[in-house]
Specification:
Layout (H helix, E strand, L loop, with lengths): L1 H4 L8 E5 L5 H30 L10 E4 L7 H12 L24 E4 L5 H20 L7 H9 L15 E5 L5
Parallel strand pairs: 1-4, 2-3
Helix pairs in contact: 2-3, 4-5
């Protein structure tokens, strides 16, 4: 699959959040907050990417597609997207999007939700996420390189910022000392 897509024009933007605590209740309580954070971070990075390429591809219509949410609860994503789309901020107004409101970049006014079993785009995204997870685990010495590293190496040129500025552009990592 990675060999077949190597010449397709797309960009990989991944946001990674480290959230560890020996108290699993802390993670359960904060799961929605963590999900919102990763979503808004990814969305802002996507907006920055679109703003950057807009002059080269003015007809692009950016679209956000998500896997069907846990418990069919799309509300956390919907409110964050609405705030980003209309105001260029997070829902709680604590962060301003560096790219401005998404509506000014031509984004669609809604998120599309799909079941991964019926969406090749989401299936491909899942493969990229898995391969990236392996890359991070190998980098941290938690795992030996395997098929994920080989697959990701075939698509590495699609990471935002490749080859010199992937970290901070294509792959963003954050941790919270409160979860340690």
């Amino acid at each position: 699959i990675f060999e077949a897509i190597k010449d397709v024009d797309f960009c990989i933007i991944i946001s990674v959040l480290e959230a560890y605590t020996p108290d699993k209740k802390t993670l359960r309580v904060n799961k929605e907050k963590l999900g919102r954070y990763v979503f808004t971070n990814s969305l802002m990075r996507f907006g920055l990417h679109v703003a950057e390429i807009r002059t080269q591809t003015p007809d692009i219509i950016p679209e956000v597609s998500l896997d069907w949410p846990d418990r069919s609860c799309s509300q956390p994503f919907d409110v964050e997207y609405a705030a980003a789309y209309n105001s260029g901020t997070t829902h709680d107004k604590t962060v301003s999007y560096h790219c401005g409101p998404l509506n000014q970049l031509g984004f669609r006014d809604h998120i599309s939700y799909a079941n991964m079993h019926h969406s090749t785009l989401l299936q491909l995204s899942d493969l990229v996420v898995g391969a990236t997870r392996e890359l991070i685990e190998c980098s941290l010495g938690k795992k030996q390189p395997g098929q994920g590293i080989d697959c990701l190496s075939r698509a590495a040129h699609r990471l935002r910022g490749y080859p010199d500025n992937i970290l901070g552009w294509g792959i963003n990592t954050y941790g919270d000392s409160g979860f340690r």
